[in-house]
Each structure stands twice: as structure tokens, then as C-alpha cells.
Amino acid sequence: MLIRRSPVLTYADVTPKAIYVNRRKFLRGLGVAGAAVTLGRGLVDLISPETRAYAGTKLATIKGPFSTDEKMNTYDEVTHYNNYYEFGVDKNQPAQNAAHFNTSHWTVSVEGEAKNRRKYSMDEILKLAPLEERIYRHRCVEGWSIVVPWIGFSFSVLANLAEPTPKAKYVAFESYFDTGQMPLAKYAGIELPYVEGLRLDEAMNPLTLLCVGMYGETLPNQDGAPVRMVIPWKYGFKSIKSIVKVRFVKDEPPTTWNRYAPREYGFYSNVNPTVDHPRWSQARERRLPEFFKTHKTLMFNGYGDQVASLYTGMDLRKNY
Amino acid sequence: MWKRYARLVLTSRWTKPIVFVLCLAPLAGIAWPFLWHATIPDPAAFIQHATGDWILRFLVITLTITPLRKIAGVPEMIRFRRMLGLFAFFYACLHFLTYIGFDKLFDLSEIWKDVAKRPYITVGFTAFVLLIPLAITSTAGWIRRLGGRRWQMLHRLIYVSAICGVIHYYWLVKSAVIRPLIYGAIVAVLLAWRVGDWYVKRPKTVPARPTPQRASVSGS
Fold first, then answer.
1. CA-nearest residue of chain B to A88?
2. Entry pTM
3. How many structural domains are present in chain B?
4. Cross-chain Cβ contact B105/A291 below 8 Å
5. Contact call for residues A172 and A195 (beta carbons, < 8 A)
6. What span, in angstroms and rounded, lies between the C-alpha atoms of A142 and A90?
């Protein structure tokens, strides 16, 4: 099963990071005595923070389709460079500020124009289909890109269970939001909760991943735990994190960045080297952790074979 | 009493080298994680953002010298203004290098296209270019050659450069406008003080004031 040690354990049993880190610190603290030593250790922690702050639960996976053989980024890179504005607008902030984010007893509510509307627990989601490892390119609208071994299965698995009615033309997603757990969210500058959306045929494309893990483990908090979308032919902000709601709808749903700056972030936001962001070029990208912006950005982030047909006859300059 | 100590410190021959080393600390701070092989997922952006921040900080510190020395009455602070301004220029050079190198791969035609097409680049480029004549004419020889008045006029370009720098920052962020707005507010206060100072000290011989006595009383 998915949890290696014992199938009796549930997702809610995953030890929150805060607890095991404190435990680790406590155990380390046993070895040393005195306030002075503790102070010294605090200074050491300040200078050299935990390089691998999060240890998720291992997930058993099979090899999924569509994987690239490009060089993967390291776990440390992908967990210390996050756009997750609810936990701070700097890319190194979510790694620290999401550390105590409590994702136990998580549910995803499937709603709207569908026959089977219901809530799914994380345990149920993890058992909907065999978990696949898919190594995708991930291109941020800001002009950088990474390669990540995600874990999950096609979103269509969940959608087929929900059985959308003929009225359903789009899927709307909503992230978890709670100012108590996300005190920095008030500085985000964007309206929250974060919402995203896809056209139903985009959502049903086998590339579209309902993602529950990466690097062989459950998702770290800062990367969108416990469940997120990964839509590799679109700019990264379309791949909404920490999903609590999936809603099948008739009309194009509002999306966070489009609402903030409609001229800069369209509903589609397909990776497209020929359509620049109004403020910067999208022709090239920086493959992290490289210094130079040498990589030519590919149409649909290189996934044209799978998705170009979704947009035949559409003016992608208009529908950016 | 504290003023005497402040003056002693400010005029000590050790203070300048110490301030010089302190001004290099941000550079050490940027190099530090590289020396320790820390994980830096986007090293180019890290250097670019850090140098960009320090340009604005040094511009703000440089612009603070004049109000501070006048308000506090320690004219000796002027000894450090040139060095601080030159450090703003030093970090601006590094920042500019990261842009033309890391982002534009030293492709001149690409750079010109960018400068012409992208407003935040245009205004950032302007902020940088305006600092060049100030750095060149920062020597005592150039003050003499230009004459104090003209030199001072030229060096007021730092006001324009700081404003352009803040706009550059404001235009490049996605939604987190708070930090550029804070820099903007600080620069606005520093420039407003100058306007106020000029207004208070404007020649009192301005003609056609109906009640000059009252004006001078309220001005003092």
C-alpha cells in the first residue's frame, strides 16, 4: 500500500513536521546542558538552518507516462524556492512559514455540475488510482523553470468518479485559506483564497496531474501539501496548491492572478514563447540553478504533442 | 555633550576605513552562501535582488546625510557622503552586470530592445545611467573644475536616480508592492525635507511680501 510501514496508518497519522523537528531538537538538547550551550546552538541554527527541513512519508509509485529525461532539480531546490504567497511573498519564506501548516484531516470537496458530489479524505484520494511518478518540466511565468518528479495520477480519475453533467464546461479549484495558519497572507497583495480554473477538456487531458507527492514522498507543505494540481504546459501559477474544493461549473471561473492583473495573466496562461508578459519577455528561461537565461522556452512547455489539439482554431495571442 | 563625542568619532582617521569595510559587508553577505555551498535555487535572482536592494539602501543613506547633519548639527558627517554615494554606484554596477550578463547574455541588441520596450527596464536603466556622471565627477578635482554651484546642480541628479530606482522596483514586483512603497515613502520624506529646507532658507529679500515681519517670525 501507499504507506510502507503499515497499511493501518492513515494520512492523518503523518507526524506533523513541527512535532518531529521539536522532538529532534529536544533529543539533541538532551545531550547538551546549560543555557549557554542552548544559546550557542540557536546561533548555529541561525547560521546553518536545517538543509532538509521536511521529511515526508514515503509513497509507493509506479512509473508514469510523459516523463522527461532531463536533469531533475534537487529536493532542496524545489523546497526552497516557492511561490506560495499565503506563506510569504519571498521564495524562501514558505519553507519556514509553512513548516507548522497542519494538513491532517484534510478533505477535498467535489461540487457543482456533477452526479457524485462528495468529500474525499486524503486516504481516499491516495487510493483512487495507482500513484505514478511523472517527471515534468515546470515553467514559471517569471521566466525560470525546474524539473520535478511529481507523484499522483491524472485528474480525470477524480473527474470520472464525479461524473460531470453535460452542463459542466469548466473546473474551478480553490486552495485552503485560513489567516490563523497563514498570518503572512495579509501581505500577499492578491485576493485569497487562491482560485484557479481549467476548461473541462484541459482538466481531462491525461497530462493534467492531481499531485499528492514528489521525490518519492508526500508533498512538503511549501510545495502545496497535501494535494495540488500540476499542469505542465501552463505557467506555474495555474498549478494550484493545497486544494480543498473542486467544482464543476458552466462558465469560465475567476482565477486569482487574472483577477489581480487581467492584462498580464490570462485564463489560459499556456506557456508560449511568442506571447510576452506585458512587462517581460517569455522567449527564454533560466533552468535553475543555472545563472544564465540560455534555455529557449518551448511552445506549451514542450508538451505540444499532447495538448496543442485542445487549442486548434484559437487565437492564443488573444487567449493568453 | 554627545555631539563632542560624535565629532571625535566622525573626524577620527579610523572611521573612514571602518565605514568602507562596513559598506562591503553586503557583498560578503551575498558571497557567504556561495562559499558555504548552501542551496541557492536561483543564484542569479539572489544576486540581482540583493544588489538591487543595496543600491536603494545606499541611495537612501546618502540622501539622509544632509538632513541628518543639519538637524543634528554635526557637519562632519559630510565626510562620508561621497563614499556612501560611490557604494550605491558600486552595487548599481553589479546589479547592472547581472542584468546584461545573466539575463541578456551580453547581447547588446537584446538589451537595447529591452530598454526601449519594457518600462521597468527603461526606468531602471535611467537610474543607473544618471549615477555615472556623479561617480565620475565625485573627485575634488572635478568639484574645482565645475565650480561648487554647478557641481551641486549636477549632483542633484541623485534625486532623479533614487525616484527612478523606486519606480523600477515598484514596476517589477508581481503583487507585493509594500517594500517598494516603503522605499518610496522614505525617499519622498528625504526629498520633502529638502524642499522645506529650501523654502525656509529662501532669500528673505523676496519682494512684494505684504507682511515680511510676520513671515520671518513664522519661519524661525
1. B176
2. 0.85
3. 1
4. no
5. yes
6. 13
